[in-house]
Amino acid sequence: MNREIRKGSLLLAEPFMLDPNFKRSVILLCDHEQEDGSLGFILNKSLDLKINDLLEDFPDFDSIMYYGGPVQTDTIHYVHNVGDLLEDSLEVAKGIYWGGDFDKLKFLISSQLILPHNIRFFVGYSGWSSGQLSEELKFGSWVDASVHSNYVFKTKPKSLWQMVMNKKGNTYSVIAQMPDAITWN
Fold first, then answer.
1. What is the pLDDT of residue 2?
2. Residue 129: what are its φ and ψ, rounded to 5°?
3. Where in the chain are the domains?
4. CB neighbours (10 Å) of residue 91?
5. Which residues are bridge partners to 91 per DSSP?
6. Which of 41, 121, 132, 150 is the most buried (most CB within 10 A)?
């Protein structure tokens, strides 16, 4: 039985999901309002891009970009662990913040007060209309999990889905060991 989903939850794609946007994805849910829908970012799909490849007027910063999801892929978003250091940030979960003043972000990066291990940048986001995520959870498309800031900022993206699934224990530990492609069985 799924616990109540709220902002700060993780959503793990069920192991047989075929949608290439979400296959074996781990999504950090940053906003979950019943009437307005839900929004999150895929944590484990890195892109072969850096932030400076996309933004010309950004300080030189060696930070990998991530594919946040298929919605508005012409936008850039970020989550970080610097909290109140970056005004207008929204706390998503303990030690995880979303957004904040963009000019202040550039200043903090230029001043080396924010380093690559403090922040993740995303192209696009994952979004659900009102009630859509609840329906997908009932259908079994997603497995909910608790978040820890280490999942976002310290865990290697390629091993994140398997690690979080394994930490859920019981049947999920068995699911975590399943090969990515059924033909590998």
1. 47
2. -75, 170
3. 10-50+62-80+90-98+120-184
4. 13
5. 97
6. 41
CB hemisphere CA count around 73 (13 angstroms): 8
Q: Answer yes or no: are the C-beta atoms of 98 and 90 closer than 8 Å.
A: yes
Give which of 80, 154, 62 is closest to 116, Cα–Cα: 62
Residue 127, Ramachandran bin (φ over 0: left; ψ between -120 and 50: alpha; else beta): beta
Angle at 25 between CA 19 and CA 29, to 5 degrees: 110
44-58 confidence digits (pLDDT tens): 999 999 999 999 999
Q: What does the angle CA 173 – CA 41 – CA 153 come to, to the nearest 5 degrees? A: 70
Q: Can you tell me which residue has the tokens 């976002």?
A: 152
Strands (E), 129-172: 142-145
Question: pLDDT tens digit string along 83-123?
Answer: 989 999 999 999 999 999 999 999 999 999 999 999 999 99
The answer to whether 26 touches 160, Cβ cutoff 8 Å, is: yes
Q: pTM of the full predicted structure?
A: 0.92
Q: How far apart are the first and last CA of the chain?
A: 28
Is the domain spanning 10-50+62-80+90-98+120-184 CATH 3.40.1740.10? The answer is yes
Supply the DSSP string of 39-56, one letter for each residue.
EEEESS-EEEEEHHHH-T
- Give the pairing type, strands 64-67 and 119-128: parallel
